[in-house]
């Protein structure tokens, strides 16, 4: 792909380090949310714009990543491998405040914190992540998740470890049931990597067990590659049921561990992983930044909210068009949002936008697959589109060395992006 002169100028703008000041002192960039979008924004802002005063608000003192969480569930990684702190950001000059952001006053440019402090900003990067839609599946609420874990919002890792412990306690010959949501949701390949890593654990320790995957969709990301891997590594262990074969779970019985589909079929399982429908996090909804979909519409070039100027919504909470809700997209859009915020503060046009996604998935410990894509705003600047001929997936076929290398590349990707995020 050949980049236009405008794209090259945009890249140059990202590398610029202009002086930023305001009458009362340094220009203030406030970042809410310390995950893939927020931590990336804060780190990038300090690297590229050292004159910018950057504050990051994040309630947790340690961040547990969703990527590689499935490998913890499968018993090939430990929680410490996916847990990160914020000292590196502090060392770069980011003020890190561990508190909940409880309200946004867009007109006054202020964010209220749970501890009582109010933070003023000149530009706000909002990366709050997702909320689980409790009750979207009948019978599935927060209490039910203590018996039927979702393990989809890492938090302190308790849900991830709960699902892992349930697999360890399940007798050989048991059935693991998964309820998989319809689009859109965080990390489209995530449930299928989870199926794979659970299967890898069962193959090692409980080979007579089965996996029943009930899906609210008729197709999924990297489907052919995943299913090739399942057939090669776990023959006969995994049954995937799409929506058109009554795979949509509409009700659960947490006490009995029953997953019930829309046409009344009841599946009793020994371990249930219920991944419910999702929306943007509560603060985005309460601030009026979302539409009827539950996600926040944004400008495709700047990631600025369509309804609240000065607030850039990045990561899983926004409406990204064809882009997946992935960690790499959160990282990529965060940098564009910061560069656009700086351009606005300087009275300049935003840099041209170009967004990148690379997503690796493990099908086995040494068996990796991937998908890539490049996206940009359309010519009118009204929507995000995929750059023609820019995307692709791993080749199919019996390619053991390719699969082994992609698993290694996945490890390198994870190390690189987390270092980029946490400075």
Automatic annotation (TrEMBL):
GO MF terms, alphabetically ordered: flavin adenine dinucleotide binding; oxidoreductase activity
UniProt signal peptide: 1-23
Domain Flavocytochrome c sulphide dehydrogenase flavin-binding, residue spans: 351-422
Keyword Repeat among record annotations: no
Domain Sulfide dehydrogenase [flavocytochrome c] flavoprotein chain central: 160-276
Keywords: FAD, Flavoprotein, Signal
Domain FAD/NAD(P)-binding: 28-140
Presence of keyword Flavoprotein: yes
InterPro entries per the UniProt record, alphabetical: FAD/NAD-bd_sf, FAD/NAD-binding_dom, FAD/NAD-linked_Rdtase_dimer_sf, FCSD_central, FlavoCytC_S_DH_flav-bd, FlavoCytC_S_DH_flav-bd_sf, SQRD
Protein name, UniProt field: NADPH-dependent 2,4-dienoyl-CoA reductase, sulfur reductase
Organism annotation: Falsiroseomonas stagni DSM 19981
Lineage of producing organism: Bacteria, Pseudomonadati, Pseudomonadota, Alphaproteobacteria, Acetobacterales
């Amino acid at each position: 792909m050949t980049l236009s002169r405008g794209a090259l100028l945009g890249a140059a703008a990202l590398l610029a380090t202009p002086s930023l000041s305001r009458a009362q002192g340094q220009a203030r960039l406030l970042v809410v949310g310390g995950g893939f979008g927020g931590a990336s924004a804060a780190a990038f802002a300090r690297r590229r714009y050292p004159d910018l005063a950057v504050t990051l608000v994040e309630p947790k003192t340690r961040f547990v990543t969703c990527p590689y969480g499935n490998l913890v569930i499968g018993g090939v990684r430990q929680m410490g491998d996916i847990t990160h702190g914020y000292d590196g950001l502090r060392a770069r000059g980011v003020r890190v405040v561990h508190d909940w952001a409880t309200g946004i006053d867009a007109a006054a440019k202020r964010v209220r914190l749970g501890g009582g402090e109010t933070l003023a900003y000149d530009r706000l990067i909002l990366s709050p992540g997702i909320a689980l839609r409790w009750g979207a599946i009948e019978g599935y609420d927060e209490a039910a998740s203590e018996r039927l874990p979702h393990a989809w919002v890492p938090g302190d890792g308790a849900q991830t470890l709960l699902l892992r412990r349930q697999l360890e306690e399940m007798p050989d010959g048991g059935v693991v049931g998964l309820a998989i949501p319809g689009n859109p949701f965080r990390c489209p390949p995530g449930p299928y990597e989870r199926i794979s890593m659970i299967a890898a654990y069962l193959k090692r320790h409980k080979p007579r067990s089965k996996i029943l995957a009930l899906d609210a969709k008729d197709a999924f990301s990297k489907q052919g590659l995943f299913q090739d891997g399942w057939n090669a590594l776990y023959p006969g262990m995994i049954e995937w049921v799409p929506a058109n074969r009554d795979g949509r779970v509409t009700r659960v019985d947490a006490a009995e561990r029953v997953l019930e589909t829309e046409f009344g079929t009841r599946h009793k399982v020994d371990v249930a992983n219920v991944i419910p429908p999702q929306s943007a996090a509560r603060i985005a909804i309460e601030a009026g930044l979302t539409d009827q979909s539950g996600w926040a519409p944004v400008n495709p070039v700047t990631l600025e909210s369509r309804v609240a100027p000065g607030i850039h919504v990045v990561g899983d909470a926004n409406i990204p068009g064809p882009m997946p809700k992935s960690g790499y997209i959160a990282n990529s859009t965060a940098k564009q949002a910061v560069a656009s915020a700086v351009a606005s503060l300087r009275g300049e046009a935003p840099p041209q936008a170009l967004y990148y996604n690379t997503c690796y998935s493990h099908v086995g410990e040494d068996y990796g697959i991937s998908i890539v894509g490049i996206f940009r705003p359309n010519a009118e600047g009204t929507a995000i589109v995929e750059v023609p001929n820019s995307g692709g997936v791993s080749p199919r076929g019996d390619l053991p060395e390719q699969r082994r290398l992609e698993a290694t590349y996945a490890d390198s990707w994870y190390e690189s992006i987390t270092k980029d995020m946490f400075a």
